[in-house]
Design a protein that fits this description.
The protein is α/β, with parallel strands linked by helices and 222 residues long. The chain has one domain: Rossmann fold (3-Layer(aba) Sandwich). Helices cover 49% and strands 13% of the residues. It has eight helices and five strands, in the order βαβααβααβααβα. A five-stranded parallel β-sheet has the order 2-3-1-4-5, sandwiched between helices. Helix 2 packs antiparallel against helix 3, helix 4 runs antiparallel to helix 5 and helix 4 packs across helix 7. The radius of gyration is 17 Å and the shape is globular. The two termini are 24 Å apart. The structure holds thymidine-5'-phosphate (TMP). Thymidine-5'-phosphate binds next to helix 4.
Length: 222
């Protein structure tokens, strides 16, 4: 089935939010619902989505006291994973008119690495834009959640937290604030969804936010 009014390109949807906000659950539910409606859905995630990017995910996220990751190296590792993902998966899927659901993209880098003292939001935003050749999602669903609840959810789900998840609460609070600033700055693209609602409620709110975008004209990706 073709996306309405998008005869030659797909739709790029990103899911964003702090750790434990429910992105993966939403990605699974949303893909299922949209596939049921006949849309050609492809779900993917960052960092990851290609063999190299998954490898870089391990490198950047695995806590290892013998292998510290500096703030600027962290920024560039996330971007290296992303650029490979764009070339290998994202652009081919969008050119193939897929409805692409991607967990995390540049907003994650701006929110997380932007909070790093030696990076900052301005540099993170500029370098993301350049590295990704100005590729911007058509719609971003931001699952907003108190980081205390997010971190509690995570520690119930699993014992081993990754390097970023292990950051202190203050860092996660700053990440949430950075996301909310992004939503303020790009209200036409970023829709805030209440991440404390049930998975079914989050999915229903996301489908509602998505509906008008299935009618829009395609964004040029070249
Ligand atoms: P995930 O567990 O939600 O897939 O995300 C992995 C972690 O990586 C999460 O703590 C957020 C972090 N991250 C960044 O700091 N910058 C980025 O650009 C991306 C994509 C993820």
């Amino acid at each position: 089935m073709q996306l309405r009014h998008k005869p030659y390109e797909g739709l790029f949807i990103t899911l964003e939010g702090g750790d434990g906000c429910g992105k993966s659950t939403l990605s699974a539910l949303l893909s299922k619902e949209l596939a049921k409606k006949g849309y050609p859905v492809l779900k993917t995630r960052e960092p990851g989505g290609t063999p190299l990017s998954e490898h870089l995910r391990d490198v950047v996220l695995k806590p290892d006291p013998n292998r510290p990751v500096g703030e600027r190296a962290e920024l560039l590792l996330f971007l290296a994973a992303r650029v490979q993902h764009i070339d290998e998966v994202i652009l081919p899927a969008l050119r193939d008119r897929k409805l692409l659901i991607c967990e995390r993209f540049n907003d994650s880098t701006i929110a997380y690495q932007g909070c790093r003292k030696h990076v900052g939001v301005h540099v993170a935003e500029q370098i993301c834009d350049l590295a990704c050749n100005h590729l911007v999602p058509d719609l971003t669903l931001l699952l907003d959640l108190d980081p205390i609840i997010g971190l509690q959810r995570l520690s119930k789900e699993r014992k081993n937290l990754d390097r970023l998840e292990q950051e202190e609460l203050q860092f996660h609070i700053e990440v949430r604030t950075a996301y909310l600033h992004l939503a303020d700055k790009y209200p036409e693209r970023i829709i805030i969804i209440d991440g404390s609602a049930t998975p079914e409620e989050v999915c229903a709110a996301s489908l509602k936010a998505l509906e008008p975008h299935l009618m829009l004209k395609p964004t040029s990706l070249s």
